[in-house]
């Protein structure tokens, strides 16, 4: 982990995956936005290559050689957006740290507004998109994720948990203390502070290529949020168990009373099988939920790392100089 640099006002962390053709334009726009804000020489751009299968890392190395403000990190294996972001946060040195995507849907010229919002006394500044450019299923999934976060994490109402955000140095220092292998960044942030604000930004179309964010990744993100920062799913499983026990008892009473009142009461095979399958499904769901928690605890106890750094542009230690970080 790097020590904060008093001369750096802003660090910008960008996880990179399949964006080799976008990165030169991203660097250009960030440089121009920082110059317009009067931050020349007082910012850094950290590009974290999440083991991208394209030429992202050679492009990052080339850009870093020509721009003193750019620092690149190459991860040995793909760990996902949130873990790659944590890798960048470990090396961010600015007073304020911003996080943005690599596809230029997040406008770099909004960074100044985010910094000013934090200077008004807030700890975290999220962004509200004025015109979402995502597909309908992803927007629906984001709304569901937002609804769940309000109930599981105590997210302030009216704040959208976007991936484009800025944090104070003190919040970053608390967030990177987390050493679990399954990282959900917004859960970590909301565990530390509720002094959160938001600014409006224009959500732009992707500059090039296609999004790699799939429905499976969206479900995985929800699972991280639900099982890493709340015991509510386990509590719901307990409530469901009590409910099923009560319904079963009621059914037993009903069957016994019906049999006494009418000895010829027919035995319903279909209803019996339906009840068995329903109860078996509930039990399997609850056991799976418990297994998810136990699995995450097992991997953490075994020391599974959040990310493994292969090399960086400022050291280029090569294959024998990798850094393993939990």
Helicity range: 40-55%
Distance between the termini: 12 Å
Which fold name fills CATH's third level, the topology of the largest domain? Spore Coat Polysaccharide Biosynthesis Protein SpsA, Chain A
Instruction: Give a quick account of the main beta sheet: strands, pairing sense, barrel closure.
Output: 9 strands, mixed
Poorly predicted tracts of residues? 317-322
Identify the CATH homologous superfamily of the largest domain: Spore Coat Polysaccharide Biosynthesis Protein SpsA, Chain A
User: Which shape, going by the Cα principal axes?
Assistant: elongated
Q: What is the strand tally?
A: 9
The Cα radius of gyration reads: 25 Å
Order of helices and strands: EHEHEHEHEHEHHEHHHEE
The CATH class of the largest domain turns out to be: Alpha Beta
Helix tally equals 10
The secondary structure category is alpha/beta
Second CATH tier, the architecture of the largest domain: Alpha-Beta Complex
Order of the strands making up the biggest sheet: 7-5-6-4-1-2-3-8-9
Number of domains: 2
User: How would you describe the oligomerization state of the chains in this entry?
Assistant: single chain
Overall description:
- With 326 residues, this protein is an alpha/beta fold.
- It has two domains: 242 residues, Spore Coat Polysaccharide Biosynthesis Protein SpsA, Chain A (Alpha-Beta Complex), CATH 3.90.550; 70 residues.
- The protein is 47% helix and 15% strand.
- It contains ten helices and nine strands.
- The protein has a nine-stranded mixed sheet with strand order 7-5-6-4-1-2-3-8-9, with helices on both faces.
- α1 links the parallel β1 and β2.
- The chain is elongated and about 90 Å long.
- The N and C termini lie close together (12 Å).
- About 2% of the residues have low confidence.
């Amino acid at each position: 982990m790097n020590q904060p640099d008093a001369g750096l006002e802003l660090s910008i962390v960008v996880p990179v995956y399949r964006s080799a053709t976008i990165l030169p334009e991203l660097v250009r726009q960030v440089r121009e936005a920082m110059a317009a804000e009067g931050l020349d020489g007082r910012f850094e751009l950290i590009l974290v290559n999440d083991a991208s299968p394209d030429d992202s890392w050679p492009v990052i190395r080339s850009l870093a050689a020509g721009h003193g403000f750019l620092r690149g990190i190459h991860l040995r294996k793909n760990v996902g957006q949130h873990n790659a972001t944590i890798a960048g946060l470990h090396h961010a040195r600015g007073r304020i740290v911003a996080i943005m995507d690599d596809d230029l849907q997040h406008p770099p010229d909004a960074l100044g507004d985010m910094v000013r919002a934090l200077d008004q006394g807030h700890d975290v500044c999220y962004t509200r998109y004025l015109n979402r450019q995502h597909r309908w299923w992803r927007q629906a999934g984001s709304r569901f994720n937002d609804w769940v976060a309000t109930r599981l994490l105590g997210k302030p109402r009216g704040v959208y948990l976007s991936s484009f955000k800025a944090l104070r140095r003190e919040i970053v220092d608390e967030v990177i203390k987390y050493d679990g292998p399954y990282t959900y960044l917004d859960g970590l942030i909301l565990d530390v502070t509720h002094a959160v604000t938001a600014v409006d930004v224009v959500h732009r179309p992707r500059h090039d290529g296609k999004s790699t964010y799939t429905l499976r990744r969206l479900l995985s993100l929800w699972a991280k949020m639900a099982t890493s920062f709340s015991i509510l799913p386990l509590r719901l499983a307990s409530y469901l168990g009590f409910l099923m026990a009560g319904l079963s008892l009621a059914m037993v009473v009903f069957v016994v009373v019906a049999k006494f009142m009418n000895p010829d009461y027919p035995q319903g095979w279909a209803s019996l099988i339906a009840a068995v399958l329903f109860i078996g499904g509930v039990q399997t769901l609850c056991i799976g939920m418990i297994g998810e928690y136990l699995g995450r605890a097992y991997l953490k106890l075994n020391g599974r790392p959040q990310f493994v750094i292969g090399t960086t542009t400022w050291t280029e230690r090569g294959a024998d100089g990798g850094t393993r970080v939990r």
